[in-house]
Write a structure and sequence with these properties.
This is Cobalamin biosynthesis protein CbiG. By secondary structure, the chain is of the alpha/beta class. It has 3 domains: 122 residues, Rossmann fold, CATH 3.40.50.11220; 103 residues, no CATH class; 119 residues, CobE/GbiG C-terminal domain (Nucleotidyltransferase, domain 5), CATH 3.30.420. Helix content is 29%, strand content 22%. It has 12 helices and 17 strands. The strands form 3 sheets. The chain has a 7-stranded mixed sheet, sandwiched between helices. Strands 8-12-11-9-10 form a 5-stranded mixed sheet. Strands 15-14-13-17-16 form a 5-stranded mixed sheet. It is globular and about 70 Å long.
Length: 380
C-alpha cells in the first residue's frame, strides 16, 4: 500500500490546495477517535472531539461540533469528518461560498469503509486527499466529479498541479471540463520550456498537440488539421507563437504557470505606480505574461518598504527577503555599485536576489530606471 504524501498535497498551489499541516479531523464517536489515531501515524493532523471522548493529542470542541467546524472552515485547507455525511452537509451548508477558495471537505464512516469527497474536489484537493486517506485505511474512495468518474483529467486539476493562472478561469473550467466529459476533443499544447513538467501532470482525455503550426489555417487544409473543439496552451508567454487569425475558429485557453521571479532593488519611498509600471515593462520586454509572476524579492533592509509590499499584494504573490550575508555570497557574479554598497551593505540587490529565487536561472537584462533595478528569473 502506497502512503506517500502526493505532490499535490505538499505545495501551496493556484487557489486552495490541501497541505498536510493544515488538515483538521473531527471525531464524533469512540470509533471515530480510534480511526483518527490511525490517520495520525501517517499525517500531521489537528484532531478535535467532544470533552467526553478527549484523549491525549486531541483538542476539545469549542462548545460544539458545529461551532468548531465553522471556525475551522476559515482556518484549515481541509476538513475531515469521521461521521455521518448528512450531519456534515447540514453543518457546512451555510459556509459554502466558492469552489476556488472553499476548503476540501472529506467524510469517513467510523468503521473506515468509505472515504467520501464532499466539497472542493479539484481545486481544493478533496479528491486527492480522499484517495490518499482511502489508501491508508484500505477503504473505498467515493468520488463523484464527472471528469474523475470518466477517468479524465480536469482543467482545474491541471491548473492546480502547475500552480497556474488563467483569464476568466471559472468560465474556462466549466467549458473545458464539460467538453472533456462530452467526448469532445480538447487539444493540449506545452511550450518548450515547460515540456519537462508534462510527465508529472494528469492529462488524460486531452489531445496532445506537439506543434501549433499543425493548426494553421494557411498552411494546412481542413482535412489535415487536427479536429479539435478547443485548445489549451500551457506557456509563460504573453502572446502565443501563432497569429491570432489562424486560430480564429478555435476556442483557445492559455494556462500560465507561475514560474517567474523578480529581484527588485529600489530607492526609499519609491512609489507603487513606478514599481508597477517598471515591472510590467520588464515582463513585457522578456515576453512574459504578467500572470507568470510567482514572487518578488529584495534585501531585508527593504522589509518595511510600503510599495514593495503593495506590489506583492497587487499580484497576490509572496514578498521574499534575503539578508546581506546571503546576497554577498553571490555578489561577485554581478556588477557592483559603491552607492548601493554604502546604502544597503552589498554591491547589488536585484541580481543576487533573482539568482537565489530562481536557483541561478536568470532571464534577460536587468532593468535600471528611476532608481529601481529589476532582474527576472524562472523557477521550475
Amino acid at each position: 500500500m502506497n502512503t506517500t504524501i502526493p505532490n499535490s498535497m505538499t505545495r501551496g498551489l493556484a487557489m486552495n490546495i490541501v497541505k498536510p499541516e493544515s488538515i483538521a479531523v473531527f471525531c464524533l464517536t469512540p470509533g471515530g477517535v480510534r480511526l483518527a489515531r490511525r490517520l495520525q501515524t501517517h499525517l500531521p493532523l489537528t484532531c478535535f472531539t467532544s470533552d467526553k471522548l478527549l484523549e491525549s493529542g486531541f483538542l476539545p470542541f469549542n462548545g460544539s461540533f458545529g461551532n468548531t467546524i465553522r471556525e475551522a472552515f476559515k482556518q484549515y485547507s481541509a476538513l475531515v469528518v469521521v461521521g455521518a455525511i448528512g450531519l456534515t452537509v447540514r453543518v457546512i451548508a451555510p459556509l459554502v461560498n466558492d469552489k476556488m477558495t472553499d476548503p476540501a471537505v472529506v467524510v469517513i464512516d467510523e468503521r473506515g469503509q468509505h472515504v467520501i469527497s464532499l466539497l472542493s474536489g479539484h481545486v481544493g484537493g478533496a479528491n486527492t486527499l480522499t484517495r490518499y486517506l482511502a489508501g491508508i485505511l484500505g477503504a473505498d474512495p467515493v468520488i463523484t466529479t464527472a471528469t474523475d468518474v470518466n477517468e479524465m483529467a480536469a482543467l482545474d486539476t491541471l491548473a492546480t498541479q502547475l500552480d497556474g493562472e488563467m483569464q476568466d478561469f471559472r468560465h474556462a473550467v466549466k467549458v473545458v471540463n464539460q467538453m472533456l466529459v462530452s467526448n469532445q476533443k480538447v487539444g493540449l499544447w506545452w511550450d518548450t520550456p515547460l515540456l519537462a513538467e508534462r510527465e508529472r501532470c494528469d492529462t488524460r482525455g486531452f489531445v496532445p498537440v506537439d506543434c501549433l503550426e499543425q493548426l494553421s489555417l494557411d498552411q494546412l487544409s481542413l482535412a489535415q488539421r487536427p479536429p479539435l473543439d478547443a485548445l489549451v496552451c500551457i506557456t509563460l508567454r504573453d502572446t502565443l507563437p501563432l497569429p491570432a487569425d489562424q486560430l480564429a475558429t478555435l476556442p483557445v485557453y492559455k494556462l500560465v504557470p507561475r514560474r517567474v521571479v523578480a529581484g527588485i532593488g529600489c530607492r526609499r519611498a519609491t512609489s507603487l505606480q513606478t514599481l508597477v509600471e517598471l515591472l510590467q515593462q520588464q515582463m513585457a520586454e522578456n515576453h512574459f505574461d504578467i500572470m507568470a509572476l510567482r514572487a518578488i524579492g529584495s534585501v531585508t533592509i527593504k522589509k518595511d518598504e510600503p510599495a514593495l509590499h503593495q506590489l506583492a499584494q497587487c499580484w497576490r504573490v509572496p514578498f521574499e527577503l534575503f539578508s546581506v550575508g546571503e546576497l554577498s555570497r553571490h555578489e561577485q557574479r554581478f556588477p557592483a555599485s559603491d552607492f548601493v554598497r554604502q546604502t544597503v551593505g552589498v554591491g547589488s540587490v536585484s541580481q543576487p536576489v533573482a539568482w537565489l529565487m530562481s536557483d541561478g536561472k536568470l532571464v534577460g537584462n536587468t532593468l535600471r530606471q528611476q532608481g529601481v533595478t529589476i532582474t527576472l528569473g524562472v523557477s521550475h
